Amino acid sequence: MSSPLSEDTAQPRSSRAPLWILITLCVAPIVASYLAYYWWPPAGQVNYGELIEPRALPDVEVRRLDGSSFRWRELSGKWALTVIDSGRCNAWCQEKLVYIRQVRLAQGRDADRLERVWLVSDHETPDRALLAAHEGLMVLRAADSDLVSMFPATHSRADHIYVVDPLGNAMMRYPRDADPRRMLKDVARLLRHSKWR
For residue 118, which of 75, 133, 135, 196 sits 20 to 30 Å off, Cα-Cα? Predict the structure, then answer.
């Protein structure tokens, strides 16, 4: 026979499950935030081009190919797809010119809000046939100007296609191997959300 005293002192063995549940509830948010920060790409970034620190372009005088003067303020209120390259215009330069032409044409009724600019970074004269293929392209001699230095580059300014906003700020660039379809969507989004009409 067991004594009543021994029955009262024997306690049932408690489970540690509630303790582990509590620890898991405390640690899970920390682990989840770490994974979200370091492993999952941000969903908020929708632009394809690389945003750069906006730089106001100086209102210096440069020359068009015909010798007439030009100041960047003449483009006030318009977006500008800008290429910086030699007047010799190698194959990559020609490809960039085609990209910016096609991106502009694809904007439809908003195409007139977008200019195409080629800043010639040396004293070479562009080929006439090339210029004829890109009617409406604004070609500016900028070799001796401070204008070119305002466009940031990782290696060479010729490696990029730049976007200049309607206030005259260089604000985005596309890499050498840019996907023209994604560029097109980016520019369409800029024009759609821009207050400049």
Answer: 196
For residues 56 and 168, the answer to whether their CB atoms sit within 8 Å is: yes
Mean pLDDT of 109-120: 96
Q: Is 77 left (phi over 0), alpha (psi -120 to 50) or beta?
A: left
Asked whether residue 7 is assigned to any structural domain, the reply reads: no
The one-letter code for the residue type at 136 is: G
DSSP state of 164: E
Q: CB within 8 A of 114, min separation 6: which ones?
A: 78, 79, 80, 81, 103, 104, 107, 187, 191
Structural domain count, the chain = 1
| CATH number of the domain residue 86 falls in | 3.40.30.10
Q: Does 41 score more than 70 pLDDT?
A: no
Position 41 in a domain: no
Q: Per the domain annotation, does 115 fall within a domain?
A: yes
